[in-house]
Amino acid sequence: MSEQRRRHRQRPTARGPLRLAVQGSILVFVVASTSAFTLLHKSVAVQVDGHQVTVEGFARTVGDLLAAGNIEVGQHDLVVPALDQSVSSRSQVVVRHARQLSVEIDGAQQTVWTTATSVGEAVDELGLRDSDVRLSASRSDALGRDVLRVSTPKVVHVAVDGQTLEASTSGGTVRDALRDVGLVLNDGDQVSVPLDADAVDGLVVVVTRSASTGESAVESIPFQTEQVEDPGLTKGATKVVTAGKAGVRTTSYQLDVVGGVVVGRTAIASVVTTEPVTQVEHLGTAEVAVAPAVTNVDPGSAQAIAQSMMASRGWDGAEFACLVELWNRESHWRVDAANKSSGAYGIPQALPGSKMASAGADWQTNPATQITWGLGYISGRYGTPCSAYQHLQSSGWY
Hints:
By secondary structure, the protein is α+β, with helices and mostly antiparallel strands. It has eight helices and 18 strands. It has five domains: 1-36; 42-96, Ubiquitin-like (UB roll); 99-151, Ubiquitin-like (UB roll) (Roll), CATH 3.10.20.30; 154-285, Resuscitation-promoting factor rpfb (Resuscitation-promoting factor rpfb fold, Single Sheet), CATH 2.20.230; 288-395, no CATH class. The chain has a four-stranded mixed β-sheet. The longest helix has 38 residues, at 3-40. It is globular. The N and C termini lie far apart (107 Å).
């Protein structure tokens, strides 16, 4: 047999291993592709506004998953985990759709975006941190379409019966403030501010008792104040733990009348019908953490204005350093700094910003007006800027 014929007969034998290798490669590719296909497909639980749904698909991220389930989200909506986070079948995704809420805080109305489902959650989102705010609805109520009215703690000064009472109140009106301080109005008594007017911090209300020819009169008994040292508060800070309430005394009189004119009045009986409640105040004793010293302040800047105003109050450089750190944290000393979530505004972040109108009509643009109000707020609530700064460090707000 010739050499050429032997070579021709051996060719099929050489192709056998090659064909098996190719077929094996194709089989591996098919198996790998099928496995990857299976791994990409997933079934994920998604909670949308409190309702549980299951979305199936081949999504790699939360955003892909929501798109696969036709679940739309906007810029104000809450999505946890974030849209760009990876997702697996073990993931749990929460979506809360935001809506606009009308809120009235101490008479000032504003509209905010919220993902809250209850009144309590909405109040927390607004940054209202005091537990004794008064609300137009229960904290546990579902958030409705009505305007949510919020009244924050404030002090109203009531001049009555020859004395001045300080009413610590969260009431929204003057009527609420008088009720909280325990003041009883007699028929014919005159009040310098309408009873349905908004109660604002620092408001002075004068009550003029009626000139009655009756045989009895109701008088207020001033409450006492008890002060207790509290190491949990910074030195100089004061917190009212139990609000004082005036007592009520009813006195009967014998009137001497001549020609229709009362010329004499003699007390014949006096009874305490309501005992006064002692006001308990906690005084801080904790040492204040001093902020780093401030050496250079640009002339004419907001900080320079504040430094001058603080000097007139007798506050030294250490207190100014605390103020610089405090308002750096709050607003970076910007006049137009606005917190869209809570409504706080300006250098001191007044909540609401309209509170600063008590210091000047130009409160929105004038740093001196904002600083004047802010220093007054710090003095009245914490005593000194360092006390306010210490409170900020311990609680995250002031």
